[in-house]
Design goal:
single chain
Length: about 170
């Protein structure tokens, strides 16, 4: 903190408290572990010979997990860095709309502009299966407002999709 003669401005460095940094490190570690466990589970559950040798083939569950985390990161940035109140459901909802857009799923007038970087990751743009409950909710929603979805998920997708945002 002090006066910067070269620029004629008063400068102040804001450093987060050590406890806050430690809390964030724990959360980030848990999210990484959650995603790693999900991806490894997907790889072990896929049929042998379904991909080329030496590649890891993601499933729709992995894709949705990535977009869920991307939505949660955007929420975190909105709250911590921009001071915009938490609207986690809407931000994650928009992340799912971006996923549907890159999958070629027609959401009618409620498609979403592709921003961010996930739509450039080849493994996330390839169609890897269906997520009927999420697609039904996206189609039933009104723009950026989530709507309840009918229970049309397969048994293996429902727990992963519904429990995914809980890592902290």
């Amino acid at each position: 903190m002090g006066w910067d003669d070269a620029h004629e401005v008063w400068t102040m460095e804001v450093v987060p408290a050590a406890a806050d940094q430690a809390r964030r490190a724990v959360v980030v570690s848990r999210v990484r572990g959650l995603l790693l466990g999900l991806v490894l589970g997907d790889v072990l559950a896929t049929e042998p010979g379904s991909g080329t040798a030496g590649t890891v083939r993601s499933t729709v569950t992995t894709q949705l997990a990535c977009f869920t985390v991307e939505g949660l990161i955007r929420t975190w940035v909105r709250v911590d860095h921009q001071g915009i109140g938490p609207s986690t459901p809407n931000v994650v909802w928009n992340a799912y709309r971006r996923w549907a857009t890159i999958q070629g799923i027609d959401l009618g007038p409620y498609g979403h502009e592709l921003d961010g970087w996930l739509h450039e990751v080849p493994a996330l743009t390839q169609r890897r299966g269906n997520a009927p409950a999420i697609v039904a909710a996206l189609k039933a929603g009104q723009g950026s407002t989530p709507a309840p979805a009918p229970a049309t998920s397969r048994a293996d997708q429902a727990p992963a999709c519904r429990g995914r945002p809980v890592a902290g």
